Amino acid sequence: MRVGVYVDGFNLYYGARAICGRSTPGWRWLDLRGLAHSMIASHAGWAPVTDLRVVYCTARISGASNPGGQRDQDVYLRALQAHGSADVIEMGQYVSRVATAPLASPDRKGRPVLTTSSWPVMVQDSTGQAMPDARFMVSVARREEKGSDVNVATHLLLDVLESSIDGAVVISNDSDLRLPVEEARKRVSVGLVNPTKNFPAGAMNASASVGVGGHWWYQLQAADLMAAQMPSPLGRLTKPGGW
Question: Could you tell me the residue ranges of all domains in the chain?
């Protein structure tokens, strides 16, 4: 069976960090091919894999604001290629901008609750009259990764429509991938691996028998990540400290 694996790199990274713990070592030097083989063998119930193509979609970290992170990422990307852990590394980009939004705090489900003026911090108008419930507007610097979800969708659909795969594994919990995944399910079996602690995105759910059938779902665990690690050193490349 020919299988394509499509990885949303930042969804995987931040999800894995939440699963394993930010300061916990032992999960970042991730062997994507080894992880995919393990997930398929344990959860797919598919025919034996004869060809596995791994597409890793990410973006370059900016060295201007995070030089250490840029160095570590560069080592990791070179290690993926040296170890044969990824066949394609597709780059998106970071976008830096200033965003303006109402000040808010999260409720118990993480939804925003707007912060409004009330004593002991009250907004007054030019005459000194209190303006209860006035909103506080703030400007913040934001750096957003752009393109990974589109790149995942593009590679997935190209491989499906060109009939170069018989099955697909998508490692992402991004609901923006709903439509390409739905279309892929009509033509090949699809496994969805949720790399986050969150509930699986509802938009990505479906019957295992829809379309061609043989679909499956799995939520990554810390043990999965710890078990799928590349060797270090890897030639002249060494896993960064704390990884």
Answer: 2-92+147-227, 98-141
Say whether the peptide bond before residue 233 is cis (omega within 30 degrees of 0): yes
Q: What is the pTM of this model?
A: 0.85
Pick the range with the lowest mean pLDDT from 34-38, 117-121, 154-158, 166-170. 117-121
CA distance 3 to 14: 25
Please tell me the distance from the alpha carbon of residue 68 to that of residue 73, in angstroms, as a whole number: 9
One-letter amino acid for residue 141 of the chain = A
Closest CA to 237 of 74, 12, 109: 74
Per CATH, the homologous superfamily of domain 2-92+147-227 is 5'-nuclease (3.40.50.1010)
Residues 163-186 pLDDT 10s: 999 999 999 999 999 999 999 999
What CA–CA distance (Å, rounded) separates 99 from 142? 7
For residues 170 and 181, give the distance between their C-alpha atoms in angstroms, rounded to a whole number.
8
**How is residue 133 annotated by DSSP?**
T
**H-run or E-run covering 211:** none
